[in-house]
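During the second half of the funding period, the structural biology subgroup turned its attention to how the target accommodates small molecules. The most pressing case was 5-O-phosphono-beta-D-ribofuranose, which had performed well in the primary screen but for which no bound structure existed. We therefore specified the complex as follows and requested a full 3D prediction, including the ligand pose.
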Amino acid sequence: MASDSPLVGIIMGSQSDLDVMRNAVETLDELGISNEMKILSAHRNPEQVNEYAATARERGLKVIIAGAGMAAALPGVVAAGTPLPVLGVPMETRVMGGMDSLLSMAQMPGGIPVGTLAIGKAGAKNAALLAAAILALGDEGVAGRLDAFRKKQNQAIAEVPAK
Ligand code: RP5
């Protein structure tokens, strides 16, 4: 759900992260939460990253989801430039399976937090659900839709595994 006034910013270090980050977009769309997507690299275009972080709150964003791989500095750099909650999604990598991305994001120095999720698709989906839970604290509409999502998920689980 792209919107002129997005509540959640989804950023990623590279076009190559889109397949994973699409899961965050789809989950937010399912919950009716307006969002925007941008490619921003902490290493390749740091000026734009700093500008994005510095203006995020005044543009009306409430939560930022940042996906990145390898050195994966993006969520930490953005978190350093905005008071908004930043959720990090580590990309799976060829060399270390994503442990490099995960540790880069999780090992933030005290004072600048990044809420780091699981590596890959589950992390992207859960980042969207966590963003929804944060928004739900002050938005009854989102809270209701999140409750319905959880109920549907619960009811979709078969009691007995299919053979
Ligand atoms: C990171 O480097 C990106 O987030 C991506 O996961 C990784 C590799 O980027 P590409 O070389 O595929 O553009 O900055």
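Two results from this model are relevant to the next phase. The first helix runs from residue 18 to 30. The helical segments are 18-30, 46-55, 74-81, 99-106, 121-136, 140-155.
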